[in-house]
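Q: Could you fold this chain for me?
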Amino acid sequence: MSNRDKHLYEFGPFRIDTAERLLFRGDEMIPLTPKAIDTLLALVSSGGRVLEKDELIKMVWPGSFVEEGGLTQNISLLRKVLGGTSGEFQYIETIPKRGYRFVVPAKDGLAPNGAEKPVIAPDPQPPVPPNRARRRAAWAASALVLLVASVLGYFHFFPRAASGTLRVNSLVVLPLENPSNDPAQEYFTEAMTEELINSLAKVQALRVISRTSAMTYKGARKSLPQIARELNVDAVVEGSVLQYGGRVRITIQLFEAKTERPLWAQSYEQDLRDVLTLQSEVASAIVNEIQVKLTPGEKLRLAAARTVDPEAYLAYSYGRYYWNKRSPADIQRGIVYFQRAIAKDPTYAPPRTGLADAYALLGSTGIDVLPPREAMPKAKAAALEAVKLDDTLSEGHTSLAYVRQSYDWDLDAAEREFKRAIELNPGYATAHHWYAHFFLAKGQPEQALAEIQRARALDPLSLMINIGVGWCYYHARRYDEAIQQYRATLELNPSLSLAHVTLAMAYEGKQQYADAIAEYNKGLALPGSRTFALAGLGRAYVLSGKHREAQQVLNELQSTAKQHYVPAVYLAAIFAAMGDKERSVQWMGKAHDERSDYLAYLSTDPWADSMRPDPRFQRLVRLISKGR
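A: Sure. Below is the predicted structure, expressed as structure tokens.
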């Protein structure tokens, strides 16, 4: 935002700015919901013009259908906050049957040269280069200092959550904002959002929406009640994070989700080296405000924190940012940052879990970047080191559990790690997601369905978890439900190759081969594992009687395997569909030598049904069940 776009509007004792979206009475910050701020800004900047109701609704809720009651509620809240004189509303006038008008002229709080007028003496800071991004960050930091002074005055307007008027059993932390408008701080802001979510998720009595779902609301113009309905939560946490001069400030507000009623607000600041302490402090404060009962272990885990090398923390933040994108190129880019974080602070455990998760994905079927024997030992070493450094880190136990299950084929060890991970952080959706795969490996698809539903309750908009729900239905032979689930996932993102390919597998299970072929081809046309989609297409061609096309697919896979890694299990599945048990068993043997993660699910995977009577197949399944 340029200086031309910034304003510090002043009217009466109040001041409101367009950059920070904060309302002040003198030095006291007045908490308002985001949409109430939008409504006030629209009125103040209108220059005394009457704003028609429809016009004002479009300005506050662009591109959304909102009934007039939402606007009326905002106006009522603003009048309560701004106050009135002799029974008349001093600032906002109702124009009957038309709309509203802001009746007090608002002075522009910008100096003649376009620079912001100083509103409070800034903290002493060393001189900074006069570039635009640094000026914005410094100004935002000064503005946020006001929040510290605002806390005492806050409750003149809003009751505390401790009054008992709201019972909070679930919440979402919406993406924290970056008030500096510096793109380089976006990585850090996302990391702080994720860490706050992870800290709150450690509380078993509180359902906290996971990062993936929360991040879908970044930049979204949706009201808090709409978000509450979509995520089924009681409360919403919003805020901002500013990193400047080796310091971190985080400002947090808590709202009742259904009504947008503000419940609590606070600002915190720490040295960047103490950012983990800052996160624990914020999470503990939120838990205290909503009066969630903690176990002794949860109290210890919430309070536990350590110092961390700032460069290590930032590098880890960048790594997770790229890992969460899930494309092979981004995962590999994330590895570079995880390794950098480890080099900066070898005692900091989270980058080890990031490294483990990155290599585990690169070596997994469906991504097909590295052979398991190349990727998984690196993932295992990193996960073991993470657990050694910090045995209380749920992510480390989850990473190790995945390797134990998918590469070691040691289900007993995997189960111990999954249980430990969930005990440490019952709200960690990835732990529940991968634990569902454990039950598939055990041949227990109904238990897998129960576990994946827990993961989805925590992360309802995660594409990978929604695909996982369909995958569990597929293994349970509940093909109609799998098809319905995959279609719902594609409504979230129609460009997801993996969703098209797994939908095709469900159609294949129902012997709807034309539909399966169509979906496999859609998957092939999108970014994703080409070999995974090709393998399914070849199998569907065989089962539909298109043997020439199937042979062409087989030839392409075998040719590709000479240049890039192609999981041997893909060719085993095509030969199984052809009825060529000899070559299918032969390729399964190669998959066993690769330590393919896919073999862990042979006990329930429908494509292997034709092979089950074969003694050689049974012997292979027994070997895998013993981890050999």
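A (continued): The first helix runs from residue 34 to 44.
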